Amino acid sequence: MASLISISSLGAEKTPIKITKPIFIKQGVWRGVFKVSEFEVPFNFEVKGKDANSAVFTLLNGTRRDDFHVKQVGADSLFIKMNTYDAALVAKIESDGTLSGEYRSLVPGFRGNSLPFTAEQGKSYRFVEPGKDIAPAANLTGKWELKGFSKEAVPNKVAILKQTGNKLTGVILQVTGDSRELEGTVQGNEFVLSGFTGPSPKIYHGKINEDGTLSGEISQGIYDNLKFTGVKDAAAELPDPYKLTFLKEGYKKLDFTFPDLTGKPVSLTDDKYKGKVVIVELVGTWCPNCTDQTIFLSPWFNKNKQRGVEAIAIGFEQKDDLEYGKYTLGKLRDKYDIKYDILFGGLADKRLVADKLPALNKFVAYPTTIIIDRKGEVREIYTGYTGQVTGKYYEEYEKKFNKLLDELIAEPIPVSGGTVSSGK
């Protein structure tokens, strides 16, 4: 063995050091494919810019665009952080210009979780190459009620779909919020939709049955699959998001104390909030609907903060560690210009959230919006968030939100200053 090492060492001494010129990802539209469980999940993206200093990496989903920065790691490797989500695309540029890599969790303790992918430049289609479409057996345009099947009870979902020829787009509504925009196709009696905007990629696939119903499966992330059936129903609706979470009998107020991003304890009883209308958001940086809600709330607050209103975001993260919360929630604050207080609530566990906020009957979903009047009393609780892609649902939410806030802001400031008591 020693002689082999010696020969190897001598050979190494005589071999000149090879300096490789860095190569960068080609500009243009790309088609990538994830391996999720046993399924392939395609996604599309565009690259603009000739180097890491100027490049913008944009995920494409129907009309939705999500931009990310590209970091070059070594001569032929890329690191694309998914903005405020603690995950990244890590890829190598192969000799033929294609990419190979993985979508990798960056959460401490979960860093073994990854999804492999490959990508080719110059391909703009998603599922089916141009010219290879099969005539669709039906048109799925409309509203569908989706019923999931699992070991535990699964709330129904509502799909709003639009089909033009073979092209299928849409959004899936559920009590936590919406799926963001999905893009796919109908081929014969089979349909498929996928979406990748930064959080784990999703795919919805299945068959159109002879009676016009749907049967299929949802795959998201790693080993997360749910079978479902679908029935077309123009009247399909989710449970009322204003009635899912409420205060227990005898309670009018909410009480909590959590540290802010400097470690300072913050409570609704603090002078800063007395006599103010307060919007409390229960969020997580890992949650796409929470991000969309933040995109709505942050500019709203910056525009209205002089009217006697405050807001507090309480972040429940994938690790129960304040330093980790400072990092993830700090990224959220900086990305979306958040001027209101951000607190760290602890681990993202629904049971723990309910334990820490005992006045609530239960905690259903991130995000949850709690609106408190000038007297410190809870006036409304809204579960989930429906973004702009949901059309009338978003418009109705925005209208009701502004109407209620205008009414509460117009109410007189209590003479006592609106001191908030805890409990019953």
Automatic annotation (TrEMBL):
It comes from Pedobacter caeni. It comes from the Bacteria. GO terms for molecular function: antioxidant activity; oxidoreductase activity. PROSITE patterns: THIOREDOXIN_2. This is Peroxiredoxin. InterPro entries: AhpC/TSA (IPR000866), Thioredoxin-like_sf (IPR036249), Thioredoxin_domain (IPR013766), Thioredoxin_ResA/DsbE_sf (IPR050553). Transmembrane segments: none annotated. It holds the Pfam family AhpC-TSA. Residues 247-406 form the Thioredoxin domain. The lineage of its organism: Bacteria, Pseudomonadati, Bacteroidota, Sphingobacteriia, Sphingobacteriales.
